[in-house]
Amino acid sequence: MKRITVFCASSFGTEKIYEEQAIALGKTLAEQNIELVYGGANVGLMGAVADGALNAGGKVIGVLPNFLRSKEIAHQGLTELILVESMHERKTKMNDLCDGVIALPGGFGTLEELFEMLTWAQLGLHKKPIAILNVDGYYDSLIELLKTMTTKGLLKETNREMLLISDNIDDLLLKMRNYTPPTVGKWIEKDKV
Q1: Which residue pairs from 12-21 have beta carbons closer than 8 angstroms and sit at least 24 positions apart in sequence?
Q2: pLDDT single digits (tens) 18-70
């Protein structure tokens, strides 16, 4: 893996460990010569993961919609800042640039980005590893919901297993390196119905 996209909050949240793990993730990526691709902001966990990588000598590419740059949240110290016109163009560009995805704690935007990447993988549009760094159990309820979706027949087990989960950065990166995408597609052929 040469580049990993990280989706996360533009705020810090209530727990100091979120910021600490964002910094640690950025630092670890830099130490392993993995470039960071992220949303381009200097605020919250987004700024923390970028600073963690930059302070460890890593390369960081930010992808930021023009309308957010005008709110003066663009990180000024990045290796590269790519400006795009829309949120959708941002996600597409971040996907194009990366070899895998990690979600840190976040809100609606982080979940939307994570689930779009999972949906694209489920549809066979990419075969990249997609992961959650489950900091301090932040995503425990979401993980339970995914299990419910599977037991209720609305999500295939093989598709649920596309989402790699760990609370440890090194373990998560190892899972991503060893990831094998599912061979079963989402769609059922007519003759198998």
Answers
A1: 12/44, 12/45, 12/48, 13/45, 13/105, 15/135, 15/136, 17/135, 17/136, 18/45, 18/104, 18/105, 18/135, 18/136, 18/138, 19/45, 19/48, 21/104, 21/133, 21/135, 21/169
A2: 999 999 999 999 999 999 999 999 999 999 999 999 999 999 999 999 888 76
Report the predicted TM-score, pTM, of the whole model to 2 decimal places. Answer: 0.93
Q: Contact at 8 Å (CB) between 30 and 53? A: yes
Cα of 86 vs its chain's centroid, Å: 18
* Residue the block writes with tokens 């959650």: 132
